[in-house]
Write a structure and sequence with these properties.
Layout lengths: L1 H29 L3 H27 L2 H31 L22
């Protein structure tokens, strides 16, 4: 009975983490340049993965697996900002300029028609 309760209770963070990661993926697809895409991926995927792993740890039912999941979540939280900062610094050092000004996303229904 306790295992069933932990599995059901672990499902909530799993769904929440997947929702955050889906939002980050949507940001990567929709934002215009590398820096805003990197920010969307880092801001959503790090906490999303940590919450997802917390849910897996709750639903696992075994202490050794739960400890591994929590250690992996700590690694994601600790390494994520460092890696994204290194990527942004490398892009800036390589000469990649951010997109300045106003950006208007193309509308899906506005297609160019050939004469």
């Amino acid at each position: 009975m306790l295992q069933l309760a932990l599995s059901l209770l672990g499902g909530l963070p799993i769904v929440a983490g997947l929702s955050l990661m889906a939002g980050g993926a949507l940001g990567v697809l929709r934002f215009p340049d590398f820096y805003t895409r990197l920010h969307a991926a880092r801001a959503a995927d790090g906490p999303g993965a940590a919450i997802f792993l917390l849910g897996l740890a709750m639903a696992s039912g075994e202490l050794s697996i739960a400890v591994r999941m929590l250690l992996l979540a700590a690694l994601v939280i600790a390494a994520g900002p460092t890696i994204s900062s290194l990527m942004a610094n490398a892009a800036h050092a390589g000469g990649l300029a951010p997109l300045a000004g106003h950006y208007r996303a193309p509308r899906p229904d506005a297609r160019e028609r050939a004469p």
